[in-house]
Amino acid sequence: MAAAGLAVGGLVLFDAFTLPLAALVLIAGASVAGIAAPLLTRRTARRAETRVQAANVALCDDVVDTLAALPDVIAYGAAPDRLTQIGDDDARLALLERRGALASGLGTALSTFAAGATTAVLAVVALGAVHSGRVAAPVAAAVVLAALALFETPAALPDAARAADRGRSAWARLCAIADAAPIVPVRGQRRGDPVAGRHADPGARHDQPAALD
Question: CB 97: neighbour CB atoms within 10 A?
C-alpha cells in the first residue's frame, strides 16, 4: 500500500506540473477506486458474512449430529428428514455466499467504472491540451497510459477488504476458543480458569484410575 501511495502521489505531481486539470481528475478517480469501492464492499458484505458464518455452523452441526447418530437415524427411518435438513442448510449457505459475492462484485464494478471513466476524461483533457499546444503528444500519452496502469493496484482492494473482514472474524473465533475454560480440568488447576487451560503443559501426567479387582 505504501508503494501504491507513492505511485499515486508521483503521478499526481507529474500531472500537476503538466496538466493541472488532469491531476484533479486523477485524484477524484483514485479516491473512488481506492476508498469508495472498498468501503462499499465492506459495508454490503459484512452483514452477509455474519449470516454465512451462522449458516456454516448450522450445516456443520447437522452433518456431525447426523453422522454421530447414524445407526439410530437409519433404524428409526429418520434419514430422509435429516438429508432434507442438511440440503436446506446447504442451499441457504449457498444463497448467502452468492449475496456476499454480489457485494464484492459491486465494489469491483465501481472500481472498474472509476478506472474507465477517469481514463476517458484524462484522454479528453490530454487531447485538448495537445490541440491547444500546451503539451506535446508524448507527454499527453504518458498522462493517460500511466493513469490506466495505476488503476491496476486499487482493483484488488474490494476483495482485500472482504478478506480482511473474514480474517478478523476468524481471529475473534479463535481467541474465543483459546480463552474458553477447558472441558476437562488439569490436576491442580481450577475448572473455570481459562488461563490455566491455555498454558497447560501438554506433557503433564494424569492419574490413572485404579484397576478393579
Answer: 16
Core vs surface per residue 31-59: b (16+ CB within 10 A) or e? ebbbeebbebbbebbeebbebbbebeebb
Number of other CB atoms surrounding residue 138 within 10 Å: 9
Those residues with Cβ within 8 angstroms of residue 79's Cβ, 6 or more apart along the chain or in another chain = 73
pLDDT band at 189 (very low <50, low <70, confident <90, very high): low
How sure is the predictor about 1, in pLDDT bands with cuts at 50, 70 and 90?
Answer: low
Q: pTM for this one?
A: 0.61
Quickly list H helices, the chain. 2-18, 20-31, 37-68, 70-75, 79-132, 137-150, 157-179, 194-198
The grid coordinates listed for 64 are: 456431525
Q: How far apart are CA 147 and CA 27, in angstroms?
A: 10
Q: Which residue has the cell 452433518?
A: 63
Q: What is the DSSP string of 25-60?
A: HHHHHHHIIIIIHHHHHHHHHHHHHHHHHHHHHHHH
Dist. CA 3–CA 69, nearest whole Å: 55
Q: How far apart are CA 97 and CA 103, in angstroms?
A: 10
- Over 80: is that where the pLDDT of 208 sits? no
* Alpha-carbon span 118 to 124, nearest angstrom: 10
- 77-136 per-position pLDDT tens digit: 888 888 898 999 889 888 888 877 777 788 888 888 988 898 899 888 888 888 888 878
Q: Between 137-150 and 2-18, two packed helices, what is the crossing angle to 10 degrees?
A: 160
